[in-house]
Every structure is written in structure tokens, then in C-alpha cells.
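Let us work through a complete example step by step.
Step 1: write down the sequence.
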Amino acid sequence: MSPPDAPSAPPPRGGRRQRTGEAGSAAATGLPSLELDLQFGEFADLAAHRAVLRKPRVRHWMQMALRRPAEITVRIVGKEEAQALNLQYRGKDYATNVLTFDYQRAPLVQADLVLCGPVVAREAWMMDRTLEAYYAHLLVHGTLHAQGYDHETNERDALEMEALEVLLVQALGYPNPY
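Step 2: predict the structure and record it as C-alpha cells.
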């Protein structure tokens, strides 16, 4: 099997969206409510990513990591869009797996998560993980960032975040992501 690393076309403005009403969807689970806007840009092998990223599944993964109600947009993009955002907001000129833009943490979490589909696929292949398991991990990771968790400030915070990620990802039925 070769790594899925085909070049991606630039996404159109606005991308493709999946959005449905979410009011009350968390009541039955006891998890914090999540208004989720799931968007897809254009890139090679988009269908495989759409198949894994069904909205109810994505919502469940993210709700498991939430401590309070949230409004979060998740956008799956190609390399060019991911690289441009990473350069603009972090000063790093490469496409990264996930970027978190947190706007508000309380009383309602408001954030955007941008995941680069081709990078996620390549990294999952390199780590011998399924695309599903790796997306679950990265969406938990990004959701924790949206609430203020950080692994880049100091070792103590990094260990706390990593331990929480392991617990949450395993609670979702996936193997230890580290």
C-alpha cells in the first residue's frame, strides 16, 4: 500500500457543507450540546474522507471531549488551503494535520477546526492507523484545544492533555493514539 499523498486542488470558496438542526441532540446522551457545521473543501480522495466523517459520528467524538456546550465548525481541506492558513496564523509554511481557532471558551465554546485531509490520510498510513481512528483522535485533540488545553506551553500541560486524549480516544473504542 502506498501513502495517500496525491496533490489536492484548491478548495472553492465556502466549500461543501453538511448542516442540519442539532437542537436537543445531546439531551439523550447526557453530553454537552454541540452545534456542528461540517464542511468539505475539494481534494483528491474526498469520498473516502466523507465516508469516515459522517456527521453523527463526528459529533459524538467531539461531544466526548467537551466540558460545556459548543458551536464548532469543522472544515476538511486540501493541502493548499491548510498550508495557507498555517502560514497566515502560525507563520509555518506547510500543511499541518489540524488547526484550532478558538474564539470563546465560556460559557459557550466557539471554535473552528481545520483538518487537512491529505495530511491526515498520509499520517494515518505512516502510523499504521485507520483513517477513522486517526480522525477521531485529531477531532478530540482539536476540541480540547478549543477549550484551552495546550501541549506546546510546558511539559506538564502536554502530559495532562495527552493523558486526557488517551482516555477519551480509548473510551470511543479506538486504541491508544500514542
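Step 3: interpret the result. The domain at 16-171 is CATH 3.40.390.30 (Collagenase (Catalytic Domain)).
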